[in-house]
Specification:
With about 240 residues, the chain is mainly alpha-helical. The protein contains 10 helices and 2 strands, in the order ααααααββαααα.
């Protein structure tokens, strides 16, 4: 799981503060967490790594790099994500939205100076971020058990199968040199982490059990609970839907 995805989980977590049903020993995510003992150990390792390495680097980055430059870098990476979203929307059979994301990518890649400026967004063309895990869900694959991976963070069986392909949705793919690839991945990770410094601090202050909170927020976002219909990208339409 990339830090962009983890940031989305953090943002969603903050929006679920008032949802008592998502917290505590009876949390709905518990039944999807058969490897909880192992997952908690990996979670603790990731938290320690974030606290001692990634967060300090991201903090320094946000203090040194001007906000307009960080926004441009963020737009650049998001623009590549738009191309991957267009591919996944096509695989999901959602061609209108796929065309919209392809249009975003085309406009921002050309008129937006390689994606540094989100001209499409300013024109009102919304971003609809999709990944292969969501595409698998659209095809009817269940989320499966919850997994926490070292470095990548929260995931599931389904999303883990998609992870190798989702990780290629980065400008690093276009570089042959290993050092350049690593540099791009590091910049992408640090930039994404810097975007959620405040959200992370808020989550530290409000979550009684941070592990449970993030787990349930992740599974909620990926469509594992009864509210799947809230997230269009997860649940396949019922048989016969739309037929007269």
């Amino acid at each position: 799981m990339s830090w962009t995805q983890r940031g989305a989980v953090l943002a969603l977590s903050l929006s679920l503060v008032a949802c008592a049903s998502l917290k505590g020993p009876g949390a709905p995510g518990q039944k999807l967490d058969p490897w909880e003992n192992w997952n908690r150990k990996v979670f603790a390792f990731n938290e320690d790594l974030d606290s001692h390495v990634l967060k300090p680097v991201a903090t320094a980055y946000s203090e040194v790099v001007p906000s307009p430059a960080r926004t441009a870098i963020d737009n650049f990476f998001s623009n590549v994500g738009d191309a991957w979203s267009a591919i996944n929307l096509t695989l999901q059979g959602r061609f209108k939205l796929a065309a919209q994301q392809a249009f975003r990518f085309a406009v921002n890649s050309t008129l937006g100076i390689g994606g540094l400026i989100d001209l499409a967004g300013e024109a009102g063309v919304e971003r609809n971020s999709q990944d292969l895990g969501q595409t698998f869900g659209r095809w009817g694959f269940g989320t499966g058990a919850y997994i926490v991976w070292p470095l990548f963070g929260p995931s599931s069986v389904r999303d883990s199968l998609a992870l190798p392909w989702d990780r290629t949705a980065s400008p690093a793919l276009y570089f042959q040199d290993g050092r350049s690839k690593v540099s791009i991945y590091l910049l992408q990770t640090v930039n994404a982490r810097s975007n959620f410094l405040r959200a992370g601090e808020m989550l530290d202050g409000i979550a009684l059990d941070k592990y449970t909170f993030i787990r349930d927020a992740y599974l909620q976002r990926r469509g594992s609970f009864e509210t799947d219909d809230e997230f269009e990208v997860i649940t396949p339409p019922p048989a016969g839907e739309g037929k007269p």
